[in-house]
Amino acid sequence: MDIDGLGPAVAVQLLDEELVDVPADLYALEAQQLVGLERMGEKSAENLIAAIDASRERGLASRWGSCT
Fold first, then answer.
1. Which of 42, 30, 32, 33 lies closest to 13 in space, CA to CA?
2. Rounded distance, CA 17 to CA 37, Å?
3. Cβ contact 3:55 at 8 Å
4. pLDDT surpassing 90 at residue 2
5. Position 57 confidence tier, pLDDT thresholds 50, 70, 90
6. What is d(CA 61, CA 30) in angstroms, rounded to the nearest whole number?
7. Domain ranges across the chain
8. From CA 7, how far away is CA 13, in angstroms rounded?
9. Contact indicator for 20, 29 with CB cutoff of 8 Å
10. 42 φ/ψ angles, rounded to the nearest 5 degrees
11. In terms of CATH, what superfamily is 8-62?
């Protein structure tokens, strides 16, 4: 999964705050849940949610190229 703005530091925070347990939980997040995270303001939270939503549209086809 390649989501802009979702690096290791953010992923650890999401796990520590129990906002996600499995990768599928990312798609249920809302910007307001993210605003309280370290270095995550309102605009950053909105951008991350937009990037997560955009990752839904990429599907499996975009991943096959990296397998060859």
1. 33
2. 9
3. yes
4. no
5. confident
6. 26
7. 8-62
8. 10
9. yes
10. -60, -45
11. 5' to 3' exonuclease, C-terminal subdomain (1.10.150.20)
What does the alpha-carbon distance between residue 41 and residue 67 come to, in Å, rounded to a whole number? 36
CA distance 68 to 52: 25
- Reported as a pLDDT band with limits 50, 70 and 90, residue 1 is low
Mean pLDDT of 30-52: 96
| pLDDT computed for residue 52 by the predictor | 96
Q: Which two tokens stand for residue 48?
A: 């991350």
Confidence of residue 23 (pLDDT cuts 50, 70, 90): very high
**Total count of residues recorded for the chain:** 68
Residue with tokens 């270095």: 39
